[in-house]
User: Fold these one by one.
Assistant:
Number 1:
Amino acid sequence: MTRLLRSPKILIGLGLSVAFGILAIAGPLLAPYNPNTSVSTTLSTPMPPSAAHWLGTTQVQQDVFSQLLVGGRSTILVSLVAGVVATALAVLFGVTAGYFGGWADELLSMLANIFLVLPALPLLIVIFGFLGRGANPNDVVIGAIISVSGWAYGARQLRAQTLSMRSRDFVDSARITGEKSWRIMSFEILPNLVPVVATSFLFTVIYGVGTYTALSFLGVISTSHWSWGTMLYWAQSAQAAQQVHLEWWWFIPPGVAVGLFGTGLALLNFGIDEFVNPRLRGAGAGGISGRRARRAGLPRRPELGLTPVLRASSTSTTGRAS
C-alpha cells in the first residue's frame, strides 16, 4: 500500500478526484448566483470575466461560474452512479459465467458480446427518446440507464480472471468443505479480483462522464437540467466559438472540467495497473530501484549466468592504495 501511494500517477489522480468530489458536494452551495437567473436585463451580449462574475456571463446574462458549480454535481453524480451500477453488473455476470461455465457461461457471454457490439450512443439516444425529456430528470435514473451500455467490457475481464481461479487449491478446498457457490464466489474468488474490479469501476466512471456530457451536449437530456454538457449545448447554440470576439469563458471551463476529472480517474487507473501488472511495474513506482541501478552503472539487462559488478572509480582505488 505504501508503494502504491508513492506513485505520482496515484497521488495526482487521487488529488484531482478528491477535489472534484468536494466540488460535487459543495458546488451548488458555493454558487454565488442562481444559474437560471439573469443578472442583468439591459445587456444582450455575453460579458467577459470580471470581479463580479469570475467566468463571465452568457448571452442572457446568466453567471457561468454558478452554472459550472451547479452542473458539476449532476455530472459527477451521474458518472459515479453509472460506474457503481455497471461494475455491479460486470461482477454479477462476469464472475457467475466464469465460475459455473457450461450453458451459463455461454448464455452470459453471448449477452455481454451483444452489448459490446451495440453502438452505445445511438442506443442511449433511443432509450432516452422513449423516456421523454422531463424538466427535472433524476440523476440516479440517468446514471443507471447509462450503465446498461457500459458493463460488458468489465464482465469479460472478470470472466477471464474467474476462469483462471476457479480450479485453484483454495477454491477446491472450499468446494470440498461444502461451501455454497455464492459464498465461494463472494468470499474466495471476489477478494482476489479487487484490483480488476477497481480498474473496471474507474473505466466505467470515465465512460459515464463522457457519455453523459455527449448526451447533454446533443440535447437528449433536458437542456434546463444543468450539467457541464448542458453548458456546452447552450454555448454551441449561441455560436460562442464563432463570434468575432471569441466567448471562450462560456465553453472552455466546462470542457476543462470534464478533461481534468477524466484525467484524474485515468491516472488512478494507470497507477493501479502498474501496481498490479508486473510487466508495467517497472515503469511506475516499482521502477525507482531500476533507475537507481542504471544511474549507478549497472547494465539494464545483465547477461544470463553473469553477476553484474560495479567497479570502483580510479580515484577511490588510488586513495585506498595510498
Number 2:
Amino acid sequence: MSDLPTVALLGTGTMGAGMARNIAAARIPLKVWNRTRAKAEPLADAGAEVADSPAEAVRDADIVLTMLFDADAVRAALEQARDGLREGAVLLQQSTVGVEATEQLGSLAGQLGLVYVDAPVLGTKKPAEDGALVVLASGPEEARDRVRPVLEAVSARTVWVGAAGQGTRLKLVANSWVLTVVEGIAEALSLAKALGVDPRQFLDVVKGGAMDAPYVQLKGGAMLGGDFTPAFGLDGAAKDADLIVEAARAAGADAELFDVVRRHFERAREAGYGDRDLSATFLTH
C-alpha cells in the first residue's frame, strides 16, 4: 500500500464514476469530488472518500485526476482546488478539452506547481466501468511510473505518445473517426428509408464483411431500435465535434467533412437530444 499514490478524482459523471470504482478496487487511496455531490456519494460504498470541495479532495493527493465535461470545468475545479494542492503532485488530465485548452491547462499546471500529464481516453461508459479504456498518455518521462498504478486500474492499454498535448491531438483524430462513422450510419439508414429499402437490410448486407465494423451494428441497431441510452452522450459528441473542427482549421487541415458532421450533431443537440447517446443524431434525419 505504501508504494501506491493517493489520488483525487474530480468528476464522477458517466466516465469518472466507473474509473473511480476501478481505482478503489485496486486499493489505491482515493478521494472523489463532483459538482453534484449525489453523483459521487455511491462511490463511498466502493471505498472512496467523498469530498465536499475540490480543495478538500486534492489535499495530500499525489495525483489529481480530472475527468470533467470540458476545459472550463477543469479550470474551475483546479482554481477551487488551488489551496489544497501539493507542490509537485501530478495533474493527470483525462478530459477531452481540445488542443488550445490542453496547452493552457499545461501552463496552469505549471503555475500551480503541478507536473502535467495529458491523458485522454478512448472508450465509453461500459469500458470505463470494466477498466477497459485505452489511455492516450503524453507527458514527461519521469511521470510515467508515478501514474502507472492509476492508468493500469482504469485501462486495458496505455499508449504513450510523446510530450504533453500529443494525447489530446490523437484523441481528436480518433473521435473525428467515431463521429464521422456514427453520422455516416445515420445517413445510410435514412437514405434506405427514403429509397423505400428496409434499413435493416443495410446492416445485414454489410455484416461480417470488409465494410462492417462493431460500431455499424451496435449504433445502427440502436438507431433502428430507438435505444438511445447514453454511452457517449450527444452533448459531449457535439462538444468534441467543435474541438475537432477548431483543431483542423488551426492546423490548416481540410475540415469540410468534419464541419458537416459538427453541424448535424449541433442540430440534434438543439432539438433537445443532448442527454441521449450520440446515436440520437439519427432522430433529426
Number 3:
Amino acid sequence: MANSSFTIYATDSRISKGLLAIPRRFSSEFPTIKGKILVVFDDATRVEPKIYVPYDPKIKECRVFGLSRWFSGVDRRWRCDNNYRGRIPTKGIYRIALDRFIEQRRSAEARRQLYTANSPEIAGEQLRRLAESKREKVQEIAFQEIALIAQRPFLKRKRVMVLQRGQAEAVPPALRVLLEVIHHGKCQICDFTFKKRDGNPYFEIPSS
C-alpha cells in the first residue's frame, strides 16, 4: 500500500454514530472486503482493531466503525460547526488524527527550529512556517513571540569578549528576525535606523 495522507470532514451524524465516512475517491487506500483494520489515534502508539466496511453503492462511502470513545474527546465546538477534520496517513496501519493536532505539531516544530536557527535566513523561514501553521500573519506571530520572550525569556544570548571598539553582544538570529519584522530595524524610541555594510539593519540589545 502506498504511503499517502488526506483530509476528510466528519459530519455531526457520523460523529454521533461513532464512525468515520471515507469518500469513494480514497477507497483504494483501504481493503476491498469487510473486516478489521489496525488504527492508531493522533500521536498514540497503541494499535487498535476497528471494523472497516468498503465502499457500498447504496451508502456511497466507506466506513470505519468504533470511534465513539475517540470522538468523545473532541472539542464540541468542532462538532457544532459540522466541520470536524480527520487526517489519515496510511501505510499498513492507519493513523487517524485531528487536523488541529497535526497543525499543533507543525507549529511546535517550526517554533523549535526558529529558536535553534543559526542564521537570520533560517529563522525567517521558520517564522513564516509558524505563521502559516497558525494561519496568521507573520507580524502578528512576531508580536506574540516577543510577548512570550518577555514573560519567559528562553533565548540563550551569546556573550563575547569585548576586544575591539564596537564589538558587542551577539544577537540570536530568532530575536533579530522578530525585531526586524516588528520594528523594521528602527529604534523603538526615535524611529532612527541605519544599515551595516551587509545591508542589514543594526541591532543592539542592552544587557539585562
Number 4:
Amino acid sequence: MATNAHIPVRSARRCIVRPAVSKFVFATAVAIATSSALACFGALNASPEVAKATRPAGTQAVASKGFGYPIKPFNSEHPIRGNFGDPRMQFHGPPTLRTLLRGSGSFSFHQGVDIAAPNGTAVYPVVDGTVAIVTSEGVRVNSSDGRAFDYWHIRRLVRKGQQVVAQQTVLGHIIKPAGHVHLTEYQDGRVVNPLVPGRLTPYHDSTRPSVRSIVFRRNDTGRELLPSFVRGSVEIVVDAEDMPCMPVHGKWHGLPVTPALITWQIQSVTGRTVVSQRVAVDSRTTVSRNSSFWQVYARGTYQNMAVFGSHYSYMQRGSYLFKLTPRPFETQSLRDGVYELIVTASDIRGNRGSQTLRFTVHNRSGWGG
C-alpha cells in the first residue's frame, strides 16, 4: 500500500548535519558535492550534442565494444556507487521543505557511473585514443571508432593531443576527497550507459530494485490524495530505488542508486488489463535532456548527500521520486470503479521489484462534489 506523502519531508529533516560533525568534514563534503556537480555539467557543456539524446526503447548487447575498468585490476569488478541516470542536484536554498518542493538550483541526469576507489588511485584509459579535452580535474579521450570517454575527479598527468594506450598510460590520480572516478561513455556524440551488457566488463547485478511507495497528487507540489477517492487530473509519483550489488565502503556505504527502468500498467480488480504496460523511465541505453529533469523526477527528489545552499547532507541517503507520466494522468480516461496500479522497477540486468496500489476512480457528480 502507498505510504504517507510526508516521507520526503521527514527525510529532508534528517539531512541536517549534527553539531558533532567537524567543520573540516562539512567543508570536505561540500567540496565533494560541488566538484561532482561541476564535473557532470562540464561534460555536458563540452559536448552539447549529448543533450540531443532521445529516450531508448531498450538495451542492446555490444560485445565488440567491451572494455575493462579504468583502475587496477582492470579485469576485476569494482563497486559502482553512482548509477547512470541518477539525479545530480544542487539546491540554491536552505534545507527546508519549501526548498525541496519549490526551490531553484542545478538539476541534471548523471551522465555516467561513479566507480569507487581510494583517493590517489591511478586512472587509465579503457580504450586507446587521443586526449581531446583537459580540465582541472578531468580529461576526455577520443577513440578512432566514434567513441569517447570522460574521466573525472583526477589530477591529470596528460596533455591535450597526447596519444594514450588502454591500461598503460596513467591519465591521472583520483583527487582527495572524491573517493571515486566518474566514467562517461559517448558513442557518436551521444552519452550512453556503460553498464549495458558487453560494455564495462566484468559487471554483474543480482540485487532487486524496490518500489517503496505509490502516491497520487493533485500537482507536483501537492499533498497525497486518498487512493480510495481519485478524480480529475492527477500526478502519480513512485518512490523507487536500487542498491549497488558490490558493497561500497566508507561514507557511501548503504546509499541507494536509481533503477534503470520503471514500467506501469492498470488492471481491473478481476485482473483484466485496462491500461497496457507503459514505460515511465528508461535509462538503460541513454538519458533524456536535462531540460526534462522535472518531467522524469517528481518534486521531493534529492540525491545522496544532497546539497542545500552551503549545507551538505553528510552521509544521508537520497530519495528518488519518479513521475509515471510527464504530464498529469487524466482519470476520466477510466470508467468510475476500482482498479489496481502495478509499478515495476528493473535494473540493467533485468532484476525487478513491483508494488500494487488499489485505487478508486470517482468522477461522476454527486457525493464529494
